[in-house]
UniProtKB/TrEMBL annotation:
Organism in which the protein naturally occurs: Zooshikella ganghwensis
Tree of life domain: Bacteria
GO biological process: isoprenoid biosynthetic process
Family per similarity comment: Belongs to the FPP/GGPP synthase family.
Keyword Magnesium among UniProt keywords: yes
Entry keyword set: Magnesium, Metal-binding, Transferase
Class of enzymatic activity (EC top level): transferase
Protein name: Octaprenyl diphosphate synthase
InterPro entries in UniProt: Isoprenoid_synthase_dom_sf, Polyprenyl_synt, Polyprenyl_synt_CS
Cofactor needs: Mg(2+)
């Protein structure tokens, strides 16, 4: 099935819920401070796949949920994600996201950080309104892990000695954790038993890991226009991602040296040379293999759920995770 058709079919399963989420987001973005509303609307409406809200909607329905609170939960997850994007772009000094100027590039670092804080606090206001202590516990713990993941990544910048184990810990915190929280809280909202909640948590975790590992590959061979970011952005920021780590560990001494130098002095990188080196070392193939392993673990975690269009969509999303080109 063509990639675009697969994605359309996944979103179509919860199309009405998605429309309701968009309305909820627009309502909750309102602030008495015009600049807050302006920046928040800019970043939230900048596009993107909205994968995390999608996961909430699909997982809640796959667990048999029949209410309407999944709409608010999906909006909460999107606000948490958007807050991390605003802060990340400041930390990474990024000027392009999803093909548009970042908020910090348009308005400066201080407003971006503060609006990120606004979105965090609005998300927690909405959590209180949900009135579900289990969900609040899961999301408060998740935001803590995400913050730790971001700090761990910051500590690894320009560190050519980063191990694969170190890196997996970083991406679990900074990326997979919110995927995990999305599906876990959806199951909690549905009142699922602990075994189902745990299975949905694991599904989200492994799916998030797969997505990040594929992102690592696309950073070297993706399409700039489709991704909305430049090729080699992670390396330009001195981030030792898995393709680089693998090349250092298994490549020739010459290849390992060049990659080490690229991580330590990214401002001097010849990106075409590095792409050739990591491709020849088999690092991109290795990273895709690791992503495929995570995808299989995610798929296996859904075995506990009964058949439904929502379960099928979740399985298709796991397939999209490793087959995508953007």
């Amino acid at each position: 099935m063509p990639e675009s058709k697969l994605v359309q079919d996944i979103y179509a399963v919860v199309a009405d819920d998605f429309t309701a989420v968009d309305k909820c987001i627009n309502i909750q973005l309102t602030s008495q401070v015009p600049l807050v509303t302006k920046i928040a609307e800019y970043i939230v409406q900048a596009g993107g796949k909205r994968l995390r809200p999608l996961l909430v909607l699909l997982a809640a329905r796959a667990c048999g949920y029949q209410g309407e609170q999944q709409i608010s939960l999906a909006a909460i997850i999107e606000f948490l994600h958007t807050a991390t994007l605003l802060h990340d772009d400041v930390v990474d000094t990024s000027d392009l996201r999803r093909g548009k100027s970042t908020a910090n590039a348009k308005w400066g670092n201080a407003p971006s950080v503060l609006v990120g804080d606004f979105l965090y606090s609005r998300a927690f206001q909405m959590m209180v309104q949900l009135g579900h202590m289990g969900i609040m516990d899961t999301l408060s713990s998740a935001t803590n892990v995400i913050a730790e993941g971001e700090v761990m990544q910051l500590m690894r910048i320009r560190d050519a000695n980063t191990s694969e184990t170190d890196y997996m810990q970083v991406i679990h915190g900074k990326t997979a954790m919110l995927f995990e929280a999305s599906t876990h809280t959806a199951a909690q909202l549905a009142g699922s038993d602990p075994e189902v909640c745990e299975s949905l948590r694991r599904f989200g975790c492994h799916l998030g890991m797969a997505f990040q590992l594929v992102d690592d590959v696309l950073d070297y061979q993706g399409d700039t226009k489709a991704m909305g970011k430049n090729i080699g952005d992670d390396l330009a920021e001195g981030k030792p991602t898995l393709p680089l780590i693998y090349t250092i560990q298994t490549g020739s001494p010459e290849a390992a040296l060049r990659v080490r130098q690229a991580i330590q002095k990214p401002e001097q990188v010849n990106i075409e040379e590095i792409i050739a080196i990591i491709t020849q070392s088999g690092a991109l193939d290795y990273t895709l293999e690791k992503a495929s392993e995570q995808q299989k673990l995610a798929t296996n975690a859904l075995a506990i759920l009964p058949p439904s269009p929502y379960k099928t969509a979740l399985l298709n999303l796991a397939t999209f995770a490793i087959k995508r080109s953007y």
